[in-house]
Amino acid sequence: MTQFKFDPAHSNVEFSIKHLAIANVKGRFNDFDANIEGDLNDLSTLKGQFTIQIKSIDTPIKDRDNHLLSSDFFDAEQYPEMTFEIKEVSEGKVTGDVTLKGETHEETFDLHYEGISKNPMNDAQTAGFVINGALDRDKYGITFNQQLETGGLLLGKNVQFELSAEFEVKE
C-alpha cells in the first residue's frame, strides 16, 4: 500500500458560481489538507479524506468573504470544515461522502490521475490528481438567494469546483 504525503504548496481548491445569471464569480480555499493511500497501479484501491477550512475562503473581496462565512452561507463559526471521504474510485470517477454545514451526502466527481513525476527540488516521486465537479448548495442548507427584477436569481444553485493536488509518493 502506497502512502501519499500531501504537498499544500503545489495544490489548490478553486470554485465558481453563477452571479446575476450573467457571469461567474470565482474564489478559492487557501487552507486544506488531504490524506490518501492506495496503489497507483489500481486506483480503485484509493481511500482517504480531504478537509477544507471554511475560514480560508478567498474571493478576494473581504466583505463578500465575510458574508460567505456568515450564517447566510457557510456558518463558519458553527461548521468550520468541509470534508470529502473517498468511498469508491472507478473509471475516472470518485465517489464519497461530502459533509458541509452539518449535512452529509454521497457525491460523485470526475477524477483525473495526472501521473507521477520526479521532483528535481527534492528527488521525491510526486503524483498529481485533479477532482472536479459541482455541488448543489441547496442540498447542504446554503440557500441564501434573491429574485432579480429581470428574472432569475442572484446566485446559481450549483457551485463548480476543481481540486488539484500533488502528493509525495511513499512506497
From TrEMBL:
It comes from the Bacteria. Residues 3-168 form the Lipid/polyisoprenoid-binding YceI-like domain. InterPro entries: Lipid/polyisoprenoid-bd_YceI, TTHA0802/YceI-like_sf. Belongs to the UPF0312 family. This is Lipid/polyisoprenoid-binding YceI-like domain-containing protein. It comes from Staphylococcus argensis.
